[in-house]
Amino acid sequence: MNSVELKDLKCASCSGVTSKLTQEEINKNLDLLNNWEINEEGKMIFKKYIFKNFKKSLEFANSIGVIADEEGHHPDLSIGFTYCLVMIHTHAIKDLSLNDFILASKIDRITI
User: Fold this and answer.
1) What is the CA radius of gyration of the chain?
2) I need a surface site. Which of 42, 51, 74, 83 has the fewest CB within 10 A?
3) What pTM, to 2 d.p., does this model score?
């Protein structure tokens, strides 16, 4: 990306014709994130955040919900006693789009 960072972009409305990223674009955007991984199928990015207790995990998940609603792009979450696993892909195309990386960069900025 030029001088614009992912966190400064806004998720675009998705549909079944939303552009899927190429492997090169996925790798480039993954390098811009903080320790996110890609699943084996290459169609989802994920990150596990660790917390001291369930209350912090839940607060984090609720903060993600606010951002997801603002962006109109929603991740899948798994919450446990000391963790929140965030899994992101573009549901409309069952693959990765730029929106996934924009949302991930915004989630990384949450402080709990």
Assistant:
1) 14
2) 42
3) 0.91
Query: Which residue shows structure tokens 């109109």?
Result: 72
Does 50 fall in a domain?
yes
Residue 4 domain-assigned (yes or no): no
Of all helices (H) and strands (E), which one includes residue 49?
strand 45-50
Instruction: Give the whole-angstrom CA distance, residue 36 versus residue 54.
Output: 22
CATH number at residue 73: 3.30.1360.20
- 6 located within any domain: no
Domains identified in the chain, total number: 1
pLDDT in tens, 30-87: 999 999 999 999 999 999 999 999 999 999 999 999 999 999 999 999 999 999 999 9
Those residues with Cβ within 8 angstroms of residue 65's Cβ, 6 or more apart along the chain or in another chain: none
CB 88 within 8 A of CB 46: yes
DSSP bridge pairs for 69: none
